[in-house]
Amino acid sequence: MVVSPPSSAPLVIGLTGGIGSGKSAAAQHFASLGAGVIDTDAISHALTATGGRALPLLCERFGPGVLGHDGALDRTALRQRVFANPEERHALEEILHPMIRAEVADALASNRQAYVIVVVPLLVETGAYRSLCRRVVVVDCSEQTQIDRTMRRSRLSAEQVGAIMSAQATRAQRLALADDVIDNDGTLEHLNAQVEALHRRYMTLAAT
Questions:
Q1: What are the backbone dihedrals phi and psi of residue 141, each rounded to the nearest 5 degrees, phi first?
Q2: Whole-angstrom Cα distance, residue 78 to residue 183?
Q3: What is the spatial distance between Cα 136 and Cα 123, in angstroms, rounded to a whole number?
Q4: 42, 35 in Cβ contact below 8 A?
Q5: By C-alpha distance, which of 118, 138, 130, 147 is closest to 19?
Q6: Fewest beta carbons within 10 Å, which of 27, 68, 180, 200?
Q7: CA dist., res. 145 & res. 162, Å (int)
Q8: Distance between CA 137 and CA 116 in Å, rounded?
Q9: Number of other CB atoms surrounding residue 186 within 10 Å
Q10: H helix or E strand, kind and range, residue 184
Q11: Sign of the CA dihedral 100, 35, 154, 182?
Q12: How far apart are CA 205 and CA 190, in angstroms?
């Protein structure tokens, strides 16, 4: 299923980047400047939280053992289960991705901001949101920076982070798709300055 914009759609910007690149920091600053932000990861977490709409389907497919003690999806356990098994991963995607895309479409239909940032970590890999986005902005940094940041915020080892990165699009593949690039190998202030420049550009585009 490809997400199509509603007839009165705002300017839609796809935002992507590899694990640990700083997508969330960029999206948060866009939001602080008045942009609409739709985060597909946040939608996924809501669908798989305690009482989430996706849980019955996930339990039916993968068994009740995928739930943690709090009744939410045990994302770490399921990630380990599907990571090296393409068939299991495909089954997970078949359940979650249509539900996420439907939520994105609903959020766009109710949006009132001049433009919307749709955060899609796997935008390059899935291609499902390309027709929706007028431009794609990639948050980019070195692979070592990705590893260091991800290790700091999680309990993953360097080897585990590297395995996740190897399953994602390469840095070169993301940059080849980019209309705009945010360099996030520096400070938060450097990131924010680039976001502010893009915000001005997108406001101009939205008015045309």
A1: -155, 170
A2: 32
A3: 9
A4: no
A5: 147
A6: 200
A7: 12
A8: 12
A9: 12
A10: none
A11: positive
A12: 23
- What is the rounded distance in angstroms from the CA atom of residue 197 to the CA atom of residue 199? 5
Please state the pTM of the whole predicted model.
Answer: 0.88
- Tell me the H-state helices in 141-187: 143-153, 158-167, 171-177
Taking alpha carbons only, the member of 182, 178, 177, 151 closest to residue 164 is: 151
Residue with the two structure tokens 């992507």: 16
CB 21 within 8 A of CB 139: yes
Query: pLDDT truncated to tens, each residue of the chain (208 aa)?
Result: 444 444 456 899 999 999 999 999 999 999 999 999 999 999 999 999 999 999 999 999 999 888 999 999 998 888 878 877 889 988 999 999 999 999 999 999 999 999 999 999 989 988 888 889 999 999 999 999 999 999 998 888 999 899 889 888 999 999 999 999 999 999 999 999 999 999 999 999 999 8
CA angle centred on 191, ends 36 and 3, rounded to 5°? 35
Structure confidence at residue 6 (pLDDT) = 45
Backbone phi and psi for residue 13, each to the nearest 5 degrees, phi listed first: -115, 125
